[in-house]
Amino acid sequence: MEPTRATILALSLLLALGLSGAKVEEENPEFWRSQAKKTLQSALDRKLNTNVAKNILFFLGDGMGLTTYTAARILKGQLQNQTGEETVMTMDTFPSVGLAKTYSVDFQIADSAATATAFLCGVKTNLNTIGVSAAARNGICKSQKGNEVTSILKSAKDAGKSVGIVTTTRVQHATPASSYAHSASRKWYSDADVPASAKKDGCTDIASQLLNNTDIDVIIGGGRKYMTPRGTKDPEYPWDYSSRGQRKDGRNLIDEWQKMKAGKNAALIHLRCPFLSAALFEPGDLRFEVDRDPKLDPSIVEMTEKAIRILQKNPKGFFLLVEGGRIDQAHHDGRAYMALHETIAFDYAIAKGLELTKEHETLTVVMADHSHPITFNGFPFRGQSILGKSPLWGSDILPYTTLMYGNGPGYKKANGTRPDIRTCGPNHRHQRRERRRGGSRLGGSAGVRSLLH
Fold first, then answer.
1. For the CA atoms of the chain, what is the radius of gyration?
2. Residue 45 domain-assigned?
3. What pLDDT, in 10s, does the model give residues 40-61?
4. From 12, 42, 96, 112, active-site residue
5. Residues of the binding site for Mg(2+)
6. Is position 112 annotated as part of the catalytic site?
7. How many domains is the chain partitioned into structurally?
């Protein structure tokens, strides 16, 4: 948003008065030169690891684009009483960095199904399809047959390694599903979601493929309701109809999974304890990090640690997919506050993964699958709250937030102008029922309220 001449002059005056948040040592050129020398020397001293990796840790921040990444870095520092801009994320410490082109075969903008198929199976495909090549068509069961592609999780299992999935979404969601399922539609979570015509043509739902396609050693996330017969009361929310089982075929996949794992240290559970090799902690997606009850719901850090400790018992090594999936879902609802806190939790999970593994035998990869239309605006001062307002005003003589969405539910215009965010109070009321569903619904100026939360 274009600042006015008056606001630019005001900004210049404030900076001249020394209100930029700069530290005294940062005014000395040698401070920056010394930092540059240390960074360069660290890179020069690094020894190339030519070992063959026994383990693979794959961290995926769903929807974690560069703006999200940068804003989360600043917020992480500000939560530690720092200005924030100078904060180093765990992800910042990796020796190699690259960029990925995230288009799908049929769309300029890819979704999590097409991207997950790309990075887990090695081929680009069409929007909304999972574990199939681009010869398969969205929602067309017949096109799926013969076009299945193999994921790295399946290849690792065939090589004798242990394999696992950790996600903050339902385990049947696009990213985790692409590691074990083949589906012409990412939306076929249970058999109730599969059209009759697709069933007739032999297509099966994603939840059933979780059991049948690959013997996965660790499964941690949400998604209970896709595993049980229609009407089955949820063990944690028995009063909530939206949390009840959805399957039409009468199968109880939880019971089937337990029978498959008979005699092994495995059980599908719904509460934090016992915390064994498979846990579905919610009917749908897990709660947002800031809404999580530590007594009932494990963090992504705890889930990552548990998965690694189980998988690393295999002397042949392991493959583990860890998805920070609710970064994406928060952005879809225009809730930057939630998205940034999810990203910070995701970064702590990466740190835990590095702590529990040995670099010489473990390849750790961190990436995002796509971004969101979230932007930085104006010229906020150093150390100013990343979730707050810009010190500048727009040409309409109204303030605006430092972070803003290019589209989504936050847009609102009344009487020919945008709302005055100075009159918008924080939104601290998070609906418990919405959390159980794994979603959030904010109307009106949701984007503004969530940024100021």
1. 24
2. no
3. 999 899 988 999 999 999 999 9
4. 112
5. 62, 173, 175, 323
6. yes
7. 1
